[in-house]
Amino acid sequence: MNKRELAVQYHEKGFGCAQCVLGAYAADFGLDEQLALKMSTGFGSGMGRMCDVCGAVTGAFMVIGLKYGRISADGVRYREETETTYRKVAELGDRFRQKHGTIDCRDLIGYNLMDPAERAKVVEKGLFTSICRECILDAVDLLEEIL
Known about the structure:
Number of strands: 0
Largest sheet: none
Distance between the termini: 18 Å
């Protein structure tokens, strides 16, 4: 099963955008599936429904960190790993923004998810399925190109 299919499978089970993206890649980096799903839970709906950076994008940022991130602390702030990670995160964010005009959930979904009435409209209109699924797939596609 490819990463797109894995991400869709997570989404169909009801997982949030960040969970879908990180979950699809967790095994590749030796990250326990349950741990990946738990740690990415709070990033959905633009980070805890705050409608900030899209969960699919933050999930992709975490995957980039898993591949390129820094693990040593030697007193120097910006080592090659940090620079590579930052560059790839910025590239993914820029490319997602080019495609969608934004990386912010509030602009992608068009509603305030903190407001229960607006969130109900999102559910009623099926936007979590349509818009969020597209964002998840685009984040995975970008990861496949960038990694």
